[in-house]
Amino acid sequence: DTAVSQTPKYLVTQMGNDKSIKCEQNLGHDTMYWYKQDSKKFLKIMFSYNNKELIINETVPNRFSPKSPDKAHLNLHINSLELGDSAVYFCASSPAGSSYEQYFGPGTRLTVT
Amino acid sequence: GNSVTQMEGPVTLSEEAFLTINCTYTATGYPSLFWYVQYPGEGLQLLLKATKADDKGSNKGFEATYRKETTSFHLEKGSVQVSDSAVYFCALGFGSGANSKLTFGKGITLSVRP
What we know:
The structure holds two protein chains of two kinds.
Chain A: E1 4-7, E2 10-13, E3 19-25, E4 31-37, E5 43-50, E6 53-57, E7 64-70, E8 73-78, E9 87-94, E10 103-104, E11 108-112
Parallel strand pairs in A: 2-11
Antiparallel strand pairs in A: 1-3, 3-8, 4-5, 4-9, 5-6, 7-8, 9-10, 9-11
Chain B: E1 3-6, E2 11-14, E3 19-21, E4 23-26, E5 32-38, E6 44-50, E7 56-59, E8 62-65, E9 75-77, E10 86-94, E11 101-104, E12 108-113
Parallel strand pairs in B: 2-12
Antiparallel strand pairs in B: 1-4, 3-9, 5-6, 5-10, 7-8, 8-9, 10-11, 10-12
């Protein structure tokens, strides 16, 4: 059983396009996150949601818009893609009262050409 | 601000060698400390944690001790296996409740040769 799943696994697109990445967790967790991992493996938080409410927004360009339709889903929509957006995007979730123990999805490798 | 510094990699070892991966941190207050591991093609997994000074976290033969005096949380394993090949991330956690946040180090790639 997949705990945190993301789709798609790979995404290749051209500059200027708009794309979405979806994330679902079946762990019953309250909090979900988006992280960006660059080519040097550096991992940085972008957003967190708790029970569908935005909690953390780490100075991410407003071309990135997260949406949480329910607490099991957190999607990431990116407008006007740029070359610098190329990275691996990870979704994660954590249970109530244990926000540091995060469960990560397998990642979505986004390549902007 | 809060930050985590890991030693530069990559690291290549022979099977059964001793492993040390250095991690130091800068933080206001008293963070919790973590090691996460990322196996090839997968997301990160929590490997071990320590929530206060002098705590030792351990899992799968790996250990790390929270050293407040040296602001360090070095990861060690006495005898590595090929299956330990992965990227290792040191992280610190701060904040409370839903505002809790993990700050990761840059990650270090470990390759273990048979």
